[in-house]
Write a structure and sequence with these properties.
Layout (H helix, E strand, L loop, with lengths): L9 H23 L2 H17 L6 H33 L8 H20 L2 H11 L5 H8 L3 H21 L1
Helix pairs in contact: 1-2, 1-3, 2-3, 4-7, 5-7, 6-7
């Protein structure tokens, strides 16, 4: 195989699968905490890779898979939030907060989610693993196969970017 082969070649696709399936499954399991759901995300990611095989070279396949899986995860989370929102709306809720405060809080959360989604993939994955999954930097480094210093740098960049975007809100 030559450098730059696209993944339509079954041998290249198989190599990409062997190199990435387990790591991607583990990564998704750590994000969602559900092995069945993690395996669904991995399977769907590889299906999308195959559907787009002519556009993806072997060197970019891992990044493509992790981006697709992460987007599937984020879509799943967004769907769960919609379901919860409808469940909450079905029951009247009593709060001491003013309607203005509640509206501002909802708007802030939407902008925060957008800011997190707009982070570069590597920063977003480190940020979410740390802040959502409560993983320590060392655990994240082992999971992603990078140094703890790299995790620290990505987290620092993510926080800086979020502060800048949220500062504008």
């Amino acid at each position: 195989m030559e450098k730059g082969d696209n993944v339509c070649n079954p041998k290249v696709f198989e190599d990409v699968f062997k190199k990435n399936a387990e790591t991607l499954r583990n990564f998704m399991y750590y994000k969602c905490g559900n092995m069945d759901l993690a395996e669904d995300f991995v399977q769907e990611s590889f299906v999308k890779l195959w559907d787009n095989c002519s556009k993806v070279i072997e060197e970019k396949a891992k990044s493509f898979l992790f981006t697709v899986a992460n987007n599937l995860f984020l879509n799943n989370v967004a769907h769960k939030k919609v379901v919860l929102k409808h469940q909450k709306n079905a029951k009247p809720s009593i709060t001491n907060e003013s309607p203005e405060f509640i509206l501002e809080e909802k708007e802030f959360l939407v902008k925060l989610e957008k800011a997190i989604q707009d982070l570069p993939e590597k920063q977003r994955e480190v940020f979410l693993l740390n802040r959502i999954d409560k993983k320590k930097y060392k655990e994240i480094a082992e999971l992603l196969g990078i140094s703890t210093k790299a995790v620290e740098k990505r987290m620092s960049q993510a926080l800086k970017t979020l502060r800048e975007k949220i500062g504008k809100i």
